[in-house]
Amino acid sequence: MWDKDTYQLKKLEENDFPFVKELLWKVFRKKISVTKLKHKYDATYPGLEQVSTIAYHGKTPIAFYGAILQQFKKNNETIILAQACDSSTLEKYQGKGLHFELAKLSYELMSKQNVSCVYAFMNENSYRSTKKLGWKEHNHMLRFHFETPTFPAAKALNKLNYNDLYGLFFKKEASNQALKALNPKHNDTFQQVFTKTFVSYKNSFKNHYYIEEENCVFWVKIEGVMHVGLSYAPSNVALQKALIKIKRKAVFLGISEILFQVDSKASLARQLATITAPKKSWYVGYLPFKRPMDLKDFIFTYSDLDTF
Q: What angle do CA 194, 197, 203 make, to 5 degrees?
């Protein structure tokens, strides 16, 4: 039962980040530095203010509702979406309406800044909680797995936090041709704007690399496995040839798997399906604010995910 006189809810501020770090560790056993949290929730990247919220019981942090702001573009229209993430409540305080009330406070902050909608890549738990808040349902993402016959040395490097080593083998800067390929004219769908500012934002808390093979371009992060985000392939044949070359590098580097997470409506999904069968991944849910919205006009990528 919600008791507004017992708990204090507020917009996330600079001095709250150490408590967010504490909450994420206690609830999920997730280790992340205060510096990386500040980079991740930097709302100045799209030029707005903070929309995440936190709850206290006295001086004790007890719940957090995280949201990052993203720019999506279609033709000449640019809109802001918020992606909900890192929602966490201490076990002792679950079932008291904190998640619901923090979410509503965040939605008020979003609406005041003309955010078009909030969305999330959802598991079963987040799906149940969003239904109570009136969220709508969209599509499943699709995942494509490509295993490589190698000793999984990359997993050991990831545990030792040595992922920076991949900078010796892959490029951190994209060629102009690669940037152009990853930024097609969005004439019929909204997609997240991929700019050097966006890449700098992502690199502030994770390392990412560009792979260019056979006129294909892949933007990846490597943490045990190779996670493939925004990508471009001019044809099915080019994609198949590029994957053969990437697999060879993966074998050499001890990367045991290459993982794509792709919007089912994306052309890349159709291209990958000619090579291997997809599996269902996260469900995408959303809640529109100021205007009616249908995500049928949106294409999401793995690199939209907050942890990518």
A: 90
Cα R_g (the chain), whole angstroms: 20
For the record, the structure tokens of 4 come out as 């507004």
Fill in the amino acid letter for 53: T
Q: Rounded to whole angstroms, what are the CA distances from 238 to 79, 204, 217, 263? A: 33, 32, 11, 20
Judged by phi (left if over 0) then psi (alpha if -120 to 50, else beta), residue 86 lies in left
CB 9 within 8 A of CB 101: yes
Q: What's the mean pLDDT in 13-20?
A: 96
Model pTM score: 0.92
What are the chain's domains?
A: 8-115 (3.40.630.30), 141-281 (3.40.630)
Angle between helices 98-112 and 124-132 (to 10 degrees): 70
Strand partners, 64: 54, 88
pLDDT (tens digit, 9 = 90+) per residue, 89-117? 999 999 999 999 999 999 999 999 999 99
